[in-house]
Amino acid sequence: MKPIIEARQVQKHFGQNHVLKDIEFAMGKGEVVSIIGPSGSGKSTFLRCINQLETIDGGYISVNGEIVGYRRQGNKLYHLSDREVARQRQAVGMVFQRFNLFPHKTVLGNVIEGPVVVQRRTVAESKDEAMALLETVGLAEKALAYPAQLSGGQQQRVAIARSLAMKPDAMLFDEPTSALDPELVGEVLGVMKTLAAMGTTMIVVTHEIGFCREVANRVAFMDQGRIVEEGSPDDILKSPKNQRVRSFVSAVL
Amino acid sequence: MSQSSASELRLEVVPPKKIGTNLLAAVCILLVLLIARSFWHGQIEWSVVKENLFARPVLIGLISTISMTFAAMGLGIFLGVGAAIMRMSENRVIRYIAIGYIWLFRGVPALLQLLLWFNLALIFPTIGFGDTFSVRTVDVMTPFVAALLGLGIQQGAYTAEVVRAGILSIDKGQAEAAAAIGMTRFRTLQRIVLPQAMRVIVPPIGNETIGMIKLTSLASVVQYSEILRKVQEVYYVNSRVIELLIVATFWYMVLVTIFSIAQFYIERHFSQGWGAARTSEKTKAEVPA
Question: What is the pLDDT of residues B202-217, one digit of tens each?
Fold first, then answer.
């Protein structure tokens, strides 16, 4: 099967700090991959590189077979224009730890912003689709509220709907429940489970081991900028081969 | 036993008397009345004030003051937004050009800048592109143009810093979220960052607009017929100096009051989404049952 997201020999530095080392990664359509690991292991950075919120220093990442951020001519890679990068980003949706809803727009305004402004679809059609998405995340009755009037869990569900409105080929979740009160984590994970069941391609950077076990097809463990071990949730969570993974898993379970 | 303790707990709070504060307030009222009285009995011919309040030259001057305020602020905001964005550019040359502009035009007094623009013909007798197009500077540099350039360009230097502060006040996550739904950098600035920055930008811009209303009076030195120059022309003829200055004072106060009220409504518009209590009522009304 042709991978929908692929990373080959990816390198990334922040100054002297080598934060991604030789990342090899591939996933197919409809897969749910969880990335776990200690803080500072490069999980979020890798996710942000896929969506070009960070640029990589070596190797390449491709989405749908298209190298992100560059145009290849012979053996050279040329930077894409701002407009081209923006076009590529539409293929992947991103959900942030801190939601990042647009506070000056209503819930509905947040969800239709992309379809209307970026994809130039009609307001009426976008609204209909947005309402259906808000129904999916259980927030249709909040359509005209402003983000400041919602709880964290509700805001994150709106952020998910906002990403889905672009009809991306894959969704990236960057610690989507880490900024939430414990009692609100469940509602967001619930929506993500629904999406997984609907066949959405997802990469989820998370500390929610329960979610990995129940929903993920595959779990990747990162430490110090490397993918240390990768496999089925059972393999990684019950019988990890790597010592570092074993100590992490026993500490969080 | 329990009843008596309940009644003991029903204690009354006696508000403080605040005698000193009330006394001070009374003294203040007295002073204001005394000042008002002395003006009333002073050498002011109030009937002259009344006659000239709506006199034709005064109203023409008023309109010139208003149009210069709008024109100069418009130019100032345009240049200010541009300079603010250039100031944050990744390119060092572009950044330093913006810094240089702000440094120069914020440093030179507005009155001096007006005089420099008005006398531009002394440096460049003609302006144009080589031989293809050329005009005499004195024909172009009318009082209006000189005043607009002098006031607008220095205003842009101030506004640039205000706009930059506004843009910097917006969380980086906002631009990232906009990028993630496929917005270009320009779109992000236009749709997401600037509208939010307006909340921070509008109050100081409002202040500066009010400042600009009064600053336009400097344009009288380059022969621009704003209200102060117009009343001066009147009192050169009839010698009623104070009366006509009071007329000008009156109109400045009217303008400032109107702009202050407008500022309140503009600020309210851009705070949409932040005033949770107010918007919830609106939301309730709009959601179909």
Answer: 899 999 999 999 999 9
pLDDT score for B6: 63
Of B179, B187, B279, the CB nearest to A146: B279
What is residue A51's predicted lDDT score, i.e. its pLDDT?
95
Instruction: Name the stretches of chain A with pLDDT < 70.
Output: 1
Mind listing the domains of chain B with CATH numbers?
65-267 (1.10.3720.10)
Contact residues on chain B for A82, CB-CB shorter than 8 A: 184-186
Surface of B (256-285) touching A: CB under 8 A: 270, 272-274, 276, 279-280, 283
DSSP per residue over chain A, as a string? Answer: ---SEEEEEEEEEETTEEEEEEEEEEE-TT-EEEEE--TTSSHHHHHHHHTTSS--SEEEEEETTEESSEEEETTEEEEPPHHHHHHHHTTEEEE-TT----TTS-HHHHHHHIIIIIS---HHHHHHHHHHHHHHTT-GGGTTS-GGGS-HHHHHHHHHHHHHTT--SEEEEESTTTTS-HHHHHHHHHHHHHHHHTT--EEEE-S-HHHHHHH-SEEEEEETTEEEEEE-HHHHHHS-SSHHHHHHHHHH-
Nearest CA in chain B to A104: B273
- Does the structure show a pLDDT above 90 at B72? yes
